[in-house]
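Worked problem 6 (solution included).
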Amino acid sequence: MTAAPAHASAQTTPDAALVLGFDADDTLWHNETLFAAAHAKFHALLASHHDPDTVERALYATELRNLPLYGYGAKGFTLSAIETAIELTEGRVSARELRELIALGRDILAHPVELLEAVPDTLAALAAAGHRMLLITKGDLRHQERKIEASGLASHFLAAEVVSEKDEATYARLLRRHEVAPARFLMVGNSLRSDIAPVLRLGGLAAHIPYPLTWEHEKLAELPQAPGRFFTLNSIRELPALVARLGG
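Solution. The predicted structure is:
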């Protein structure tokens, strides 16, 4: 999904204005809490077969194995949960239990968008100050489009980009498309693996806003080392001050 640019192309000279990139899930609105609740119900469903740790390890391994095929999001989770249930029960999982698993994914897809605290006011203030902003999120296209529309935040962004993966190649492609120099790009997000590290490797700037829950796949063993380019914020409320300090 790409919104048509609302402004003229950005300059890419070193003194060009800072362009802000925002992750969506768990940066602008709650997401991982929905998956955590689904995981708990999945553990309960298989409680008569295996302990929660065994169930979680098996599900995680299945999800990682299926990522190249299913991608990220509720649909991939649902298919992986069904596959895991069949494997862990040696095919004895019932039709009723499979329907319950399907319902877990449907509940995530249908859940209302719940914005994180201070997000609407912060984005409105940044937009009012003339900052150019991109929304960069990964996952199921239809689900992400629905959440973006329901959030009421779309008008603040120059473009909304839904991608299958957030790695160096993806960010490089998006920055070229929007004519943004990496050194003048600040990515804001909760995932060290997807929002922070790839942008830093490209020479950009990154602001990490930790979320209380993080999927294991999105963690890094160590914090990135990029003095003067990597920042950790307690809340999105602190972002305007950082942007001002960086000469945005």
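Discussion: Residues 32-110 form a domain with the DNA polymerase; domain 1 fold (CATH 1.10.150.240).
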